[in-house]
TrEMBL record:
The keyword Transferase applies. Belongs to the UDP-glycosyltransferase family. The lineage of its organism: Eukaryota, Viridiplantae, Streptophyta, Embryophyta, Tracheophyta. GO terms for molecular function: quercetin 3-O-glucosyltransferase activity; quercetin 7-O-glucosyltransferase activity. The keyword Amino-acid biosynthesis does not apply. This is Uncharacterized protein.
Length: 103
């Protein structure tokens, strides 16, 4: 994910007014320097409504009744876990089988 994509997604989540859990590895940002600074600023601004972590027990989170949707790269495991939990997916495929899985 580019830093620009990250910021647009962040604006959408913060401006939605809804609580959210955002799980993203720090090495997921591509193409720009200063990624750690961006993440620090995002974490500070998220404190009111959201929680940003680099890992979570995905199957447990998806099974929680308050989950309304799942933004996923459409990897096979994530796709199966979301289907099993009955959670709607917003697919953002990146490479390999993810394009096919997202259909």
């Amino acid at each position: 994910m580019t830093a620009d994509h990250l910021l647009e997604l962040w604006y959408g989540l913060v401006n939605s007014g809804k609580p959210f859990l955002w799980v993203m590895r720090p090495d997921s940002i591509t193409g720009k320097n200063g990624e750690s600074q961006i993440l620090e600023e995002l974490l500070e601004a998220l404190k009111e409504r959201g929680c940003m972590v680099d890992w979570c027990p995905q199957e447990e989170v998806l099974a929680h009744p308050s989950v309304g949707g799942f933004l996923t790269h459409s990897g096979w495991n994530s796709t199966l876990e979301a289907i099993t939990a009955g959670v709607p997916m917003l697919c953002w495929p990146y490479f390999a089988d993810q394009q096919i899985n997202s259909r």
